[in-house]
Amino acid sequence: MGGSDVANSPPGAPVVHGFPHLDTVRSAITALYRRLSADGVHAYATSLPPADAAFADQDDLHLGAQRVARSLVQHLHLPEARMIVGFRAMEHAASVELTAGPEYFIELNDRFRTHRRDIGAALAHEVTHVLLHRLGLEFPGTRANEILTDTTTAYLGAGWLLLDAFREDATSRQKLGYLTPEEFGYVLAKRAFAFDEDPSPWFTSPQAYTAYTRGRERALRDLRRPPLTAAGWSGRRRYAKDRRYAQDRRYAQDHPGAVPDPSVPYVFETGADGPRVSFPCPTCHQRIRVPVRGRFTARCGLCRTALECDT
Question: Whole-prediction pTM value?
Answer without folding.
Answer: 0.91
